[in-house]
Design a protein that fits this description.
A hairpin with a 6-residue loop joins strand 20 and strand 21. The chain folds into two domains: about 220 residues, 3-Layer(bba) Sandwich (FAD/NAD(P)-binding domain); about 180 residues, D-Amino Acid Oxidase, subunit A, domain 2 (D-Amino Acid Oxidase, Chain A, domain 2, 2-Layer Sandwich). The longest helix is centred in the C-terminal third of the chain and has 16 residues. Helix 1 packs parallel to helix 6. Strands 5, 6, 7, 14, 15, 16, 17, 18 and 19 form a nine-stranded mixed beta sheet that branches. The chain has a six-stranded mixed beta sheet with strand order 9-2-1-13-21-20, sandwiched between helices. It is an alpha+beta fold and about 425 residues long. The radius of gyration is 21 Å and the shape is globular. The mean pLDDT is about 95. It starts with 6 loop residues before the first strand and ends in a 20-residue tail after the last strand. The structure holds flavin-adenine dinucleotide. Flavin-adenine dinucleotide (FAD) binds next to helix 1, strand 14 and strand 19.
Length: about 425
């Protein structure tokens, strides 16, 4: 059996290419395999690519605050040649409405304060000054369109918000994967596109490579599952589902693109807004558009998908519901008759916190369950996965003695066991895309 590589990475999304880059920098000969023709054309391409720092857990906040710095220093991080077209990070800030549901953001502010991540508390006047198109009536809880109370304010008002000034978004998420792929290739990483993994090869109780759909075998002592919404299928192929307390599942999502109301330049003067009162988040988009995603309120049906290659890619009533909910906040919003935006899949985990871990099969690793909120963390997740693989392959038992990992920018150490596949469900999670 000829070894093709030291490690085979399944998936060339933003996290898969970051894992390739970080392992290649450590001297590993990596081979990334993807069924798509181009890197970043899985769920990464559909991402809103919001880089925010507010998470309900301390570990989640630390990881995201660390993650921000790589986007800020993108060209330097990649060591990219001057003529390479790079994805851009737009640092427009993120405003999060205080609501009963998010505990008035008390926990989030404590996490940020403890980590030295800047934030500002705003009152209603400051919100109105930043976003003059916003009406601050409260509509919580979010309702279905057939509920007689849909669109009716509840009599309360949004009283305040927290603004995280360092937050922003990346203009072209697929390009950011390609940037990472190019950076990895400069360190010797190889890529096999249009190659679908059909089987995880095993021998003597460990992973030994992958078999492609056309029958070709690729051999390596390490295989890493970074297959996004296909992660559960790949884990099933490896036979590693049994010892996992946290499972992953593909969840269908619709993102609305609407023009900003006339007379307000949302692209230049707007901000990212997370608004649990109407169960939506939004961000500025090119051409003075606004991109509106859902925070998945309990009243909306969750559409779980068994086959991530075969699902409804058309807009549904969910698009209209999201647009109308945003119209509750922005009364001057014009809702186009033709739906535009994105239909894609999250790889949602049981507690909406990712799994960055080894598995029950020696040599087989997983970076999955990214739950609609790990784009921002791709570079640091790649670095942590590379350290985890090196730690385990050196003979350490990460299950019994979890790896401690230093976050280089913010100078904190995290227990990688936080992301274990075998953890108890994390009760501190928001159990939503907010993580
Ligand atoms: C609508 C939407 C909005 C989002 N918004 C945000 C946001 O604002 N901020 C944020 O931080 N995160 C966000 N996310 C989440 C973020 O985009 C994802 O966590 C991230 O892109 C996942 O990257 P990945 O590399 O793990 O997976 P992917 O990009 O899905 O890549 C997986 C790759 O694996 C390949 N693959 C799968 N199966 C096989 C197989 N059998 N053989 C070969 N190749 C295979 C696929 O072709 C694909 O290219 C959002 C996600 C979605 C869907």
């Amino acid at each position: 059996m000829t070894k093709t590589a030291d490690a085979i990475i399944i998936g060339t999304g933003v996290i898969g290419t970051a894992v390739a880059f970080e392992l290649a920098k450590l001297g590993w000969k990596t081979l990334s395999v993807d069924r798509n023709a181009k890197a970043g054309h899985g769920s990464t391409a559909g991402s809103c690519a919001i880089i925010r720092m507010h998470y309900s857990t301390f570990d989640g906040t630390a990881f995201a605050w660390e993650g921000y710095h790589y986007w800020r220093d993108w060209a330097e991080y990649l060591q990219a040649p001057a003529d390479e077209a790079l994805a851009k990070f737009i640092e427009c800030g993120c405003l999060v409405m205080k609501t009963e549901g998010n505990g008035q953001l008390e926990k989030h502010m404590v996490n940020s304060r403890d980590l030295g991540c800047p934030y500002e508390e705003w009152d209603a006047d400051q919100i109105a000054a930043k976003l003059p198109i916003y009406a601050l009536d409260s509509f919580a809880p979010a309702k279905r369109r057939d509920d007689p109370g849909f669109g009716q304010p509840n009599g309360g008002r949004i009283g305040g918000a927290v603004f995280w000034p360092k937050a922003g978004y990346v203009t072209d998420p697929a390009l950011s994967s390609q940037n990472l792929g190019n950076a990895a290739a400069r360190h010797g990483a190889a890529f096999r596109m249009k190659a679908e993994v059909a089987e995880i090869l095993q021998s003597g109780g460990r992973a030994t490579g992958v078999k492609l759909a056309d029958g070709e075998e690729l051999h390596a002592p390490v295989v890493i599952n970074v297959a996004g919404p296909a992660s559960a299928r790949i884990n099933a192929m490896a036979g590693v589902l049994e010892d996992m307390t946290i499972s992953t599942r593909a969840l269908r999502q619709e993102v609305v693109h609407v023009p900003a109301p006339e007379g307000f330049d949302f692209e230049a003067n707007g901000t990212i807004v997370s608004d649990s009162d109407i169960a939506l988040y939004c961000r500025p988009e090119h051409g003075n558009h606004i991109l509106v995603g859902s925070e998945d309120p309990p009243c909306d049906a969750h559409e779980w998908v068994d086959d991530d290659t075969d699902y409804n890619r058309e807009f549904s009533d969910q698009w209209t519901v999201q647009a109308l909910r945003y119209g509750q906040r922005v009364p001057s919003l014009g809702i186009p008759s033709q739906a535009r935006g994105v239909v894609d899949l999250y790889d949602a985990s049981t507690d909406w916190i990712p799994i960055y871990d080894k598995s029950a099969l020696p040599g087989f690793y997983m970076a999955c369950g990214t739950s609609g909120n790990q784009y921002k963390n791709a570079p640091i997740a790649g670095k942590m996965m590379a350290a985890l693989v090196a730690y385990c392959e050196a003979g350490n038992d990460h299950d019994s003695t979890p790896l401690s990992f230093d976050l280089p920018y913010i100078g904190k150490t995290v227990d990688v066991g936080f992301y274990s596949r075998k953890r108890p469900v994390n009760a501190e999670s928001s159990f939503s895309v907010l993580g």
